[in-house]
Amino acid sequence: MSEGPPRRLRRWGWPLLIGALAAAGILLAVADIAAGGRSPNPMTQAFTGSVVVRSGLPATPASQTVAFDRSQIGDRFTFDSPIGGLGPLNPYQAVRAFLSSGAGLVLLALAGLVVFPTRARNAVDRLEGSHGAEIALGAGLVMILLTLAAITLLRFTLVFLAIVPIVLFTALIAALFGVACISLAIGRLLRRRLGLASVHPLIAALAGALVVFDLAVIPYAGVFAFAALAMAGLGLAVVTRFGSAGGWSFGDLSW
Q1: In whole angstroms, what is the distance from residue 216 CA to residue 44 CA?
Q2: Would you kindly state where each structural domain of the chain is located, as residue ranges?
Q3: How would you class 138 by CB atoms within 10 Å of its CB: exposed for 0-12, middle for 13-18, buried for 19 or more?
Q4: String of b and e for 73-84 (b: at least 16 CB within 10 Å)?
Q5: SS3 labels along 155-218
Q6: What are the pLDDT digits (tens) for 170-211?
Q7: Residue range 19-71, pLDDT digits in tens
Q8: Which H, E and C letters describe the chain, residue by residue?
Q9: 20 to 30 A from 2, CA-CA: which of 20, 36, 74, 136?
């Protein structure tokens, strides 16, 4: 018997989804680069780099030729935007940003899941529980405030000033671990919502990490979306004690 369309769609569902997310990321990166050329946009510099301008056009303080691009290939793929208020469109740099920043984000997420599979599973279970996302986001906000307060106090000392990089590095590692778990949770959510076939967890995490990248390169709003995800990732790492089976509880203070 031949397989029906639903079964074939389920088989090709994950490749189609990952391809669509990758294409959406490139298109959003194109828009992000164009928007960043006319007004300040922190995510443009963080994820897509400096804006490439067309040859022969006067350079502005907000837009400059990318360093180390001696071949000037990017200028050949720069087009004027048909929408007023946006800078030049550059698909070449958008693809390069996707293959660098996007791939880097995906590899970091997958590396966190490969190194700590059991802890990541515990953290995802906690995140998918009742009010898990709200708790993680709230805990992340509290941890950011405490981290800023600690850094401010440590700056006024000479003995403990060297601890500041350690505090920032620990917060960064915790946020990366949390974002990796959130990527896996997003992939699992997509599988349930779209009715996709069961797949290896790393494939689901790949789709989730692409969603995170797509959210981060949304023009103007991407900085807020990525900040919320990083904050939730930091909070998730804290409330689960990096995916510990016991989790975090005030009961640990009792004796």
Answers
A1: 9
A2: 5-249
A3: middle
A4: ebbebbeebeee
A5: HCCCCCCCHHHHHHHHHHHHHHHHHHHHHHHHHHHHHHHHCCCCCCHHHHHHHHHHHHHHHHCC
A6: 888 989 999 999 999 999 999 988 888 888 889 999 999 999
A7: 999 888 888 877 777 766 555 555 555 555 554 444 444 444 444 444 445 54
A8: CCCCHHHHHHHHHHHHHHHHHHHHHHHHHHHHHHHHCCCCCHHHHHHHCCCCCCCCCCCECCECCCCCCCCCHHHHCCECCCCCCCCCECHHHHHHHHHHHHHHHHHHHHHHHHHCHHHHHHHHHHHCCCCHHHHHHHHHHHHHHHHHHHHHHHHCCCCCCCHHHHHHHHHHHHHHHHHHHHHHHHHHHHHHHHCCCCCCHHHHHHHHHHHHHHHHCCCCCHHHHHHHHHHHHHHHHHHCCCCCCCCCCHHHHCC
A9: 20
Q: Look up residue 244 and give its amino acid.
A: S
**Tokens, residue 17:** 């989804």
